[in-house]
Design a protein that fits this description.
The chain has 344 residues and is of the alpha/beta class. It contains ten helices and 13 strands. Helices cover 33% and strands 21% of the residues. Mean pLDDT is 84; it is low at 209-228.
């Protein structure tokens, strides 16, 4: 007998319900993307699991998306997202890559060893803030660390209101500290670079070794990349857990607001600079440089802010240029086709 699901089990909320008309409710079935592959999607509905083959006419979709199916399980339309995570595609490609959608809380996972990196945590925070998702920093490998308080203090120095949890990912009791965020109907995502214990953490949260894990490399404490597809899991708590592959290269794009929110202390200081266009280098009356010189602001944090704001601006400009080129090429193709028809 095929497993069926209630919409609340799948993370359905009033935000999506309000997008449906009475006619939609009568004739169409809401479905949530559980697995996103290049050529097809695995969907979960009240009627069970469905597979949807992707076609060029469909919009870009990712795990966590909600869409409507007709009575023949054909695609009707994609529902507007409450939130989404996106990045610049890895490598030289200039396009925005969706990684997950409709998330309530993002667990930013880092490890309590030499792979701990504040710059990387700030990068993920910028991504999450831009999406309007609640961030929680989860520090793993607590069982292998003798000075967890030192790491906690470093993360909370980024933002005193930021929630930070330390866990031993192999201990379900330790992982249960995440339960306040994994409630009925809530969708959570675990994001973080490879080897930080994300898959092990997910296994403990699920209570079953769904995610394949790999041994850690002892020479540099960095793990091998194990998760290769984006997947959605239903939790016994009633929550929905969304897993994404470890991101080795996370390039920010269209993320200025998220960067500014992550570095709001620098933004507040910059408002006090003598010049509105101050670059916080050697300008007179720079409140940001004064804060660095007095020890109020960490030089590392300023450098990372400047790096991320420039990176997202460059990638956004590159993306806009690519869109303009694609639009121009499309017009040229249409004009050529029209000319051919005229000559016949």
């Amino acid at each position: 007998m095929e497993t069926t699901y209630s919409l609340s089990q799948l993370g359905w909320k009033g935000y999506f319900q309000h997008q449906l008309s009475l006619d939609d409710l009568t004739h169409f079935t809401p479905a949530r993307v559980a697995v996103a592959e290049r050529s097809e999607l695995v969907l979960l509905t009240e009627n069970g699991q469905q597979t949807l083959l992707l076609t060029p006419s469909m919009p870009a979709m990712t795990v966590g998306d909600w869409l409507l199916l007709d009575s023949d399980n054909h695609f009707v339309r994609l529902l507007e997202r409450s939130s989404w995570l996106a990045r610049k595609a890895a490598g030289r490609d200039s396009y925005r890559q969706l990684t997950a959608a409709n998330i309530d809380t993002a667990f930013i996972v880092s490890s309590l060893n030499q792979d701990f990196n504040l710059n990387r945590i700030e990068r993920y925070l910028a991504l999450v803030h831009e999406a309007g998702i609640e961030p929680v920093v989860v520090l793993t490998k607590l069982d292998l660390c003798d000075s967890a308080a030192e790491y906690i203090n470093q993360v909370q120095a980024l933002d005193s209101m930021l929630m930070v949890v330390t866990v031993n990912a192999t201990d379900p009791n330790s992982v249960s500290q995440l339960n306040p965020w994994i409630g009925s109907g809530n969708t959570v995502a675990f994001i973080g670079s490879s080897g930080v214990g994300k898959s092990t953490l997910i296994n403990s949260a699920l209570g079953d070794a769904i995610q394949q894990t790999s041994a850690i490399r002892t020479d540099d404490a960095k793990g091998r990349h194990t998760t290769t597809s984006r997947t959605l899991h239903l939790l016994s708590s009633g929550g929905v857990l969304l897993d994404t592959p470890g991101m080795r290269e996370l390039q920010l794009v269209d993320c200025e607001q998220g960067v500014n929110e992550t570095f709001n202390d620098i933004i507040d200081l910059a408002a006090q600079c003598k010049f509105s266009d101050c670059q916080h280098q050697n300008e007179p009356g720079c409140a940001v440089r004064a804060a660095v010189d007095s020890g109020q602001l960490d030089e590392r944090r300023l450098h990372n802010y400047q790096k991320l704001i420039k990176e997202q601006a460059f990638n956004t400009a590159t993306l806009s240029e690519r869109r303009a080129q694609d639009k121009s090429f499309g017009k040229m193709v249409k004009a050529t086709m029209k000319l051919k028809k005229t000559k016949r």
